[in-house]
Amino acid sequence: MANQSGTFPLRKYDWYGGSLEVRWSVTDRGDNRSDVYAALWAKTNGFTTYGPSAYFTFRLGGSDGNWTGAVSVSGSWKMIAERGRTIDHGANGSLNGIDIGVLAGEVYGTSFNSIAYDGVNLIYVNATDYVVLPYAPYNLRIAGGSVTATCFGVYYDRSSHDSLDRSDQAQWATDSGFTNVVWTDEGPQGFTQPCTAAPPFSLTPSTKYYVRVRSHTSAGWGPWSAAISQTTLPATPPGLSVSASPSGTSSVATMSPPGGVTGVDSYTLEWRLQGTTPWTAVTTGTTYTVTPLTPGLTYEYRASARIGGYTSPISTTVTLAQPKPNTDPGDYFDGDTASPASGDLDYSWSVPASPHASTSIATAKGVMGWEAEFTTSGGAGVLYRITAGIFGSVYAARVQLSRDATTAGLRAGQQDLAPYWTDVSGGSPYIGSISVRPSRSQRLAAEVTWLTTAGTLISRSVGAATVVAGGTWARLVGGGTAPATAVHAVVRVIDVSGTGWSKWLGGESIELDGAMISLNEQFPYFDGSMLTDGVYVYEWSDPAKPNASTSTRTPIEQANLEVLESQRIGARAILDPACLPPTPPRPPVIENACVTDAALWRRAIAAIPTGMISEYLNVVPTFEIVTTTKAVNQVRIRLYPNPTELPIDLVDLSHGWISEQIISYVPMHTVMTIDGVHQRVYAEVGGLEAISADHLLYGSKGTPATWPVLTCGQAYVIVADIPVELTQDDARLYTQLTTRY
User: Fold this and answer.
1) What CATH code would you report for 370-519?
2) Average pLDDT score over residue span 276-294
């Protein structure tokens, strides 16, 4: 505003005159105050009551202003005094006026005698002339504890001397240039927050937002403040994994921050027995041990994260079955006396120094030479020994899953350490196999791992994936040509993604047995502790290390084979693992353990029409049983006469058969011939030479076998039965008819 000046109206007495110059200077509009300067000039006309001189004084700013000292003037203009004062404006920015006081008089001796006084409000300032653009707000800061997945608050400051008629505006954008403004807060007063506004506005989780503020007065909008930014928290739960202890009495929960979060103040872990309420909760750090738990029971776990004042969503529930290593919990045990029926357990006292005065513990035994690996997303588990495997071995291995998986990632089998690996020669072909029995159907494959001399991984060869039915043993095969630098190899089972695969769940298990690697071709399973079968002698390469060195199979010389066959000293070409050979001579009726009736049969039926049976000559059937990847027990073949040649589905098969022959055991990959012409049974196992199998043929209920003869030119029906747990692909029956002349 320009300086203002005017003539001071002191005209009451014609003997003096005055002129008042007022200068207006705005020094701090932001602080809503102004500086005012005034100078008083005066003169006389030379005629006064007491002489040629008069004295003047004045004050600036009303009654609280200080008078200047009296100054004598005469007929010439003289500046009496100059005064300055800082004056605050009103709340609306206006300056109502400046009070000027002027006092004229004479001096008599030392006294000042007032002759005239004028007091006026000389200058007025209109608000519209004074109000200017406000300053930008400053000191923007995130409100402590306000950050959540959908909201946060921002405090800011503004000049304390800005006009009170101002209003503020805050902008929220997803970019620093504020080209994408998502929310505008009209009228905040030092604080802006979308979720508490009216109406409220929700931010997007895991998104960075920029905030700025400006102020408005009647003069217009002021400049924007510097922007502040903050990323909202993710609306995701924390990561949660739970692993059970091998003893089954506790579990360890491990939490990780939600994606995009670097720091978590605390976690809330909850657990309960599956299907029950309520949840037990605890506030904890990254890991927490849940105890005591009951082995064999299934528990559920979930977790949430606390970040400042924000609590994340609750994680997906993790279900985990506690291992139950004591496979025979009905047997009594204490810390120093093991049950004879529990050879897979070790017993100890919880406080060894206090036997019979502390808790006794049963712990599953480890299994030598086996290991199990899990990827982070492939779950977790423990490996321990169980009694009896598929091949009648004393022990086998079991992997007990203790944590849910999200992807395929289980690898279990031979340990890649001496002496458990197999020595190989680079460039040669090797076949690896392993027998497995999962607790439920799973897609699995055999994997051969090739290793250097030091045991360093070179590569892996994976066999064809197979969906193995739950509760059944299957032999998986894999392998290939060993890399040139390979010196050792191990075989393991892996789970393979694809049709038939589903994630492992805590509490599920898979049993392992019969890991074997052979050169050039796949052999039927054998180890160094198998009985001599009349064809081969089985030994450990290091007799001092049974079950811990390479097993060998050496053919018996043909001459010895003939002696063994002629003398029948008890060694047999094929051993039925469910029925050990009886002491010779063979009794006329064997124990029923070798021949049992299956609870349910899987049946195949075929018709022999009349045209294939001579009316006058005898016809003798020969049967051929072919197995694939599974051994087959209790193959039953029955012949029924069908004189009227009824359709197969109308023949009464509940009784009336004329012949029943039972094969108690057929190994896998075997062609077994029941030769009706020569009345002999022989088998070709694994494509090798034929060997005797007469001892595996029985008649009804274990009686000695008889040989059927078909005659009279009539039709017959052949019925072949195998246990229902097998499939038709596991065993196929072929029939040949020979006419005797």
Assistant:
1) 2.60.120.260
2) 89
